[in-house]
């Protein structure tokens, strides 16, 4: 029997032009034992013309579709039999794989978890957005592999592309580029301004599955529309599906440095309105992903989490993609490391310089802030929906000597010492602030001079998008001459009503406050700004009965209109991997001020385990209110 088995060899091949030289075709014999470091196979049984084999792939094999062929060798000819097809993925449980992650709890979170939390809002009020990644839904793997096959590199040279598919760095860059459609037949079309009538407003999405299926079903045409958290979440789904440990990361007060000088210069007029002259900007938050891998292409010390950003901001090697950039290199300011470390370093650590420009063209520097950018960098905790602060992964503590030295190393310049200011100004808003209620704002003007001063004080409130303000949409202006005695703190209180701000709000309910104080005599000035995020009413959800797979489950959903106006065309949209096949809509009609509504919804779960049901509330005046419920679905046998 052993003699007959040695007549056989196996062939594993992938791609349109498999070859041994490219590594897309591998021939290997049957051996006595499995070798986990290369392709190998052993005989489990061989009798009555039936051969049973155990096959093990190489840890650095190419991912994707493979064909397994059995070759029978003889002196005269070689006979080949196709045994079947299979798909290879990266294996983070394998110690020889470049994406190996040894922590079992992290593997459950960053590879196996189909549900997550994405953090949005602003640094002072961080909101939790539930998301269904759905990487194990029935057709998602096929769509993810189709995404790779639609990349420009594959279309140009399929054989070369398949040859490089053993590298997680290469796959991550491909996915980063293909999740946006700027250079290719990618998944999402990004849009940050109205209107969205010919597509889906980005805040409406609850998960990646509907987006990936729409792209696949519509002939790989871009899905409209995405913004940063949508790009990041879809990329997370694809990479987890392919076996690469991945997590979604949010950076609050995130800089977009277009000219690479690590400085964000902003010009305001004397009313506090951004003049919009700079291409640089600071987003209230920006979302990207991190993937775990070894970096054998770099000098030692750069393994581990790598930052990737599929949102199309700047080109990298001629393509709209970003990363993988080692988080360790970002922290150390090692801007010579591939890929795109300088850009991400600026996102978390750029300095902000503020200028006031008068009508006569005079430009006055009023503030230089080294601590504003890169706050509360966040990701979901392992095993819970809580927030983990990972700011220290990206930079040393703000204001520390080490942090400043790292900045100087990256920027090649010294920051001059600022003279002590005699005038200080800051804003505070008593929180939490709820959508529909009045917002009370306090400006504190501090006179550190030995003499009484008279200040011209101006406060303005604007609508703010999470990425930038909408120019011209001013909510309120306040102007007053304020006398402040020596070493005194003077408090000026201003109130915003719903009647003033309500019509300007969007999904994020963000209001930007700017305040300017100018000494009438010395012309010394102080400028500050603050973003306020208004809290929407909560959606409450309750499981009614025992959740059992393949049995009807009923959920109670409640919502109360806390706004002082009626809400029309109200609708709940439900989604959840393993719970609902696609999406479920429940139309509610009109909700009057103070009116509460409760609906019971039934569906049949199709998977066992912990699942996340998300619900989105929409109306004419209040949109994309999110809620979620974690549900442990039991096996029918256990129940």
**Strand numbers in spatial order across the main sheet:** 15-14-13-11-18-19
CATH-scheme architecture of the largest domain? Alpha-Beta Complex
Residue share in β-strands: 35-45%
Structural class, please?
A: alpha+beta
Give the mean pLDDT. 91
Give the arrangement of secondary structure elements:
Elements: H1 2-5, E1 8-13, E2 25-29, E3 40-47, E4 50-56, E5 64-73, E6 78-88, H2 104-112, E7 115-122, E8 125-132, H3 140-149, H4 152-156, H5 158-163, H6 168-178, E9 188-190, H7 209-217, E10 223-226, H8 228-241, E11 246-256, E12 263-268, E13 281-293, E14 304-308, E15 325-326, H9 327-332, H10 341-349, E16 351-357, E17 363-369, E18 375-380, E19 387-389, H11 391-394, H12 401-411, E20 423-429, E21 439-447, E22 453-464, E23 469-484, E24 488-496, H13 498-501, E25 510-519, E26 525-533, E27 539-544, E28 553-560, E29 567-575, E30 584-591, E31 596-603, E32 609-618, E33 625-633
Parallel strand pairs: 9-10, 12-16
Antiparallel strand pairs: 1-2, 1-5, 3-4, 5-6, 7-8, 11-13, 11-18, 13-14, 14-15, 16-17, 18-19, 20-21, 21-24, 22-23, 22-25, 25-26, 27-28, 28-31, 29-30, 29-32, 32-33
Helix pairs in contact: 3-7
């Amino acid at each position: 029997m052993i003699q007959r088995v040695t007549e056989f060899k196996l062939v594993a091949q992938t791609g349109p032009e498999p070859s041994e030289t490219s590594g897309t075709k591998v021939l290997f014999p049957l051996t006595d034992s499995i070798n986990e470091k290369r392709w190998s196979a052993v005989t489990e049984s061989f009798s009555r013309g039936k051969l049973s084999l155990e096959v093990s792939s190489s840890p650095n094999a190419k991912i994707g579709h493979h064909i397994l062929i059995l070759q029978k060798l003889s002196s005269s000819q070689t006979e080949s039999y196709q045994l079947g097809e299979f798909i290879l993925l990266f294996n983070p449980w394998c110690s020889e794989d470049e994406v190996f992650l040894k922590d079992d709890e992290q593997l459950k979170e960053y590879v196996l978890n189909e549900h997550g939390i994405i953090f949005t809002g602003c640094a002072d009020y961080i909101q939790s957005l539930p998301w269904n990644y759905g990487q194990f839904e029935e057709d998602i793997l096929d769509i993810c592999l189709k995404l790779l096959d639609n990349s420009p590199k594959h279309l140009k040279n399929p054989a070369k592309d398949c040859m490089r598919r053993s590298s997680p760095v290469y796959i991550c860059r491909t996915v980063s580029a293909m999740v946006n459609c700027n250079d290719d037949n990618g998944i999402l079309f990004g849009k940050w301004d109205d209107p969205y009538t010919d597509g889906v407003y980005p805040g409406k999405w609850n998960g990646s599955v509907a987006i990936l299926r729409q792209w696949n079903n519509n002939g790989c045409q871009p899905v409209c529309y995405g913004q940063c958290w949508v790009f990041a979440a879809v990329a997370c789904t694809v990479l987890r599906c392919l076996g690469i440990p991945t997590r979604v990361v949010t950076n609050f007060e995130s800089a977009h440095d277009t000219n690479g000088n690590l400085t964000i210069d902003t010009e305001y007029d004397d009313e506090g309105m951004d003049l919009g002259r700079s291409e640089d900007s600071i987003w209230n938050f920006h979302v990207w992903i991190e993937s775990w891998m070894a970096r054998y292409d770099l000098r030692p010390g750069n393994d581990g989490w790598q930052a990737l950003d599929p949102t199309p901001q700047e080109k990298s090697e001629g393509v709209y993609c970003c990363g993988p950039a080692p988080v360790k290199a970002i922290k150390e300011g090692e801007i010579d490391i591939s890929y795109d470390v300088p850009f991400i370093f600026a996102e978390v650590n750029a300095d902000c310089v503020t200028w006031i420009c008068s009508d006569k063209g005079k430009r006055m520097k009023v503030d230089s802030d080294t601590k504003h950018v890169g706050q509360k960098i966040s990701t979901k905790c392992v095993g819970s929906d809580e927030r983990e602060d990972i700011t220290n992964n990206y930079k040393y503590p703000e204001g520390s000597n080490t942090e400043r030295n790292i900045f100087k190393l990256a920027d090649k310049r010294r920051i001059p010492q600022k003279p002590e200011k005699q005038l200080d100004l800051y804003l505070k808003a008593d929180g939490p602030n709820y959508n529909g209620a009045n917002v009370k704002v306090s400006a504190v003007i501090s006179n550190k001079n030995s003499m009484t001063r008279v200040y011209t004080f101006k406060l303005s409130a604007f609508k703010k998008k999470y990425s930038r303000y909408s120019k011209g949409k001013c909510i309120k202006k306040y102007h007053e001459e304020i006398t402040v005695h020596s070493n005194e703190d003077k408090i000026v209180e201003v109130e915003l009503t719903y009647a003033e701000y309500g019509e300007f709000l969007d999904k994020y309910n963000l209001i930007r406050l700017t305040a300017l104080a100018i000494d009438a005599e010395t012309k010394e000035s102080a400028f500050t700004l603050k973003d306020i995020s208004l809290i929407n009413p909560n959606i409450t959800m309750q499981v009614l009965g025992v959740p059992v797979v393949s049995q009807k489950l009923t959920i109670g959903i409640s919502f109360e209109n806390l706004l002082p106006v009626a809400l029309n065309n109200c609708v709940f949209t439900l989604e959840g991997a393993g719970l609902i096949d696609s999406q479920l809509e429940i139309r509610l009609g009109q909700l009057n001020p103070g009116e509460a509504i409760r609906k019971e919804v039934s569906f049949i779960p199709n998977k066992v385990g912990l699942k996340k049901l998300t619900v989105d509330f929409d109306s004419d005046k209040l949109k994309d209110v999110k809620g979620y419920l974690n549900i442990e679905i039991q096996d029918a046998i256990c129940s």
